[in-house]
Design brief:
three-stranded antiparallel β-sheet; alpha+beta
Length: 241
């Protein structure tokens, strides 16, 4: 739908903007008129008000970009991390995205809709500030990559926790080998590494199952009912003596 255009308003024509996406928006929403920014563009192109075009640019920018997230980085001369934010100032982003001259860009930037001074005094935060902005999809992709990396780094801990929960609360003797294979690899790989998950015991070697004593599991209780309770190796040795 074409926008009404007043003689007192500054007109920007489709030829002022190099990006086809925005130039087409001016063509679809403007009326034929004289460009106020470049006289060589003549009066045969479609024009819209700077304010009207700035509203469209604002809708695009808020949908596409967000304030850059902070990140830490190391410096050569300090043990403390330094901080910066991803992205670029919004003026530089719009200059690249719109592909327009500096005077056109300045007019658009000055007309971008934002909170008023009154709103700021009431506690509102302006959207366009002296800070960096980054593409929303790029920030979301970075977040997903970081989450995947954190999961990858902790995957063995997660698997081990699942294994412990299974053998403690669900089943102890059935389909446990499959869980160990998923966690440690093929059985032939079990003897690799500094900490081995599987040990080969000699024939006749005794093993003990241990449990720490506490308020509910006392030495007296073990003496009364040793067969139904797990007990410490140290206590079993005392019993043998």
């Amino acid at each position: 739908m074409s926008q009404p255009f007043e003689d007192t308003e500054t007109g920007i024509c489709e030829k002022c903007i190099g990006n086809p996406r925005f130039a087409d928006w001016i063509f679809q929403n403007g009326n034929k008129g004289e460009c106020e920014f470049d006289s060589t563009h003549g009066n045969s192109h479609r024009i819209v008000t700077v304010e009207g075009f700035a509203e469209e640019v604002d809708r695009y920018f808020r949908k596409t970009y967000q304030p850059g997230e902070e990140f830490a980085y190391a410096t050569e001369h300090s043990d403390n991390p330094s901080y910066d934010t991803y992205g670029e100032p919004y003026e530089e982003i719009l200059a690249n995205d719109l592909e327009c001259d500096g005077n056109v860009l300045s007019a658009i930037v000055e007309s971008l809709p934002d909170v008023s001074n009154h709103d700021i005094a009431q506690g509102a935060n302006p959207f366009y500030v002296d800070a960096n902005y980054e593409p929303i999809d790029k920030a979301e992709a970075r977040f997903r990559a970081e989450e995947e990396e954190r999961w990858y780094e902790r995957r063995f801990s997660y698997q081990w926790d699942d294994f412990c929960h299974t053998v403690q609360y669900e089943r102890r003797f059935f389909k446990i080998k499959e869980l160990l294979d998923d966690l440690f690899g093929e059985p032939k790989e079990y003897d690799q590494g500094a900490i081995k998950p599987v040990y080969v015991l000699k024939s006749g070697q005794k093993i003990y199952r241990e449990r720490l004593l506490d308020e509910t599991l006392t030495y007296e209780r073990l003496r009364v009912c040793p067969g139904s309770c797990s007990f410490l190796t140290e206590l079993s040795q005392h019993e043998a003596d």
